Structure prediction request, 162 residues.
Amino acid sequence: MEEFAFSRRDRSGHKIATNAVAWRDLRDWLALVEASGGLRRISATVDPVEELAAITFLAGRTVGAPALLFDRLCGDEFGTRVLSNMLGASKERYAFAVGLDPALSICDMIAATRAIIRRRIAPYVEKRGAPVNEIILRGEQIDITRFPTPISVLAMSPLHAI
Prediction:
């Protein structure tokens, strides 16, 4: 996972990824970002109503703000975790997400992103037993309100649009 497959170079000599990405799933991406110091795990129990949004807002106001992974949410019965500020203002985390060299300049990163956008994406093949299918609810068990939903009162305020 720490190995990057870079082979093309941009105008300034920096390498541009030809591979899609250096990770297979969100868990791999989180490990990559954590190893680079761009992830902060929040292990304290956090209320998804306003508190999670407030923490994310305050953390995001700092230069170099990390991605935040909230491990414990009030009222959660499924072991749900919430990732916020995933990309934030971090060109390095963006580079990891799309498979670019984090050392690229912003200008070269934009050019490389345009090239990525033009590529065709291979069809997705669903796999049985994927971790996303660990919680299966059927019939009367189905109640979407049982999953914690981060809510920010500020986002619902008419003043927010100003």
User: Anything to note?
Assistant: Residues 1-8 have pLDDT under 50 and may be disordered. Residues 106-118 form the longest helix (13 residues).
